Amino acid sequence: MTNKLEFEHETFQIRGAVFEVYREMGCGFLEAVYQECLEKELHSRNIPFASQQSLPLFYKGELMKQTYIPDLICYGSIIVELKAAKEITPEHKAQILNYLKAARLKIGLLVNFSSYPKAQIERFIF
Predict the structure, then answer these.
(1) What is the CATH number of the domain that holds 66?
(2) Per the domain annotation, does 2 fall within a domain?
(3) Is residue 81 part of a domain?
(4) Sequence-separated (6 or more) residues with CB below 8 Å from residue 77
(5) pTM of the prediction?
(6) Which of 6, 64, 65, 84 is the most exposed place for a label (fewest CB within 10 A)?
(7) What total of structural domains would you count in the chain?
């Protein structure tokens, strides 16, 4: 029996990119700045990602006009939601769980660049 986490290698690669962005930029910038930096870092590490990809929502099986737009989807399987907040709140956690549900994906990373002395990353499984 193995204790291997699902997408362990992929999330390790993403975390490395996040910590590199934090090492270079530090805390205190707006979320959009970190998003652009992380996109550049992911690209330089050949980590496949889609940025601001619209996810359809359904109500009782019927497609809705409203959509969810997570910050990044890496490897086609991992949602990465970025924050530049004083702290991670229950609303942030609910947001990433809703994104996972809407996308029908299992793994999400919630990243807060405004924590000190390092970026905070929480892993979610849906």
Answers:
(1) 3.90.320.10
(2) no
(3) yes
(4) 7, 10, 105, 106, 107
(5) 0.92
(6) 65
(7) 1
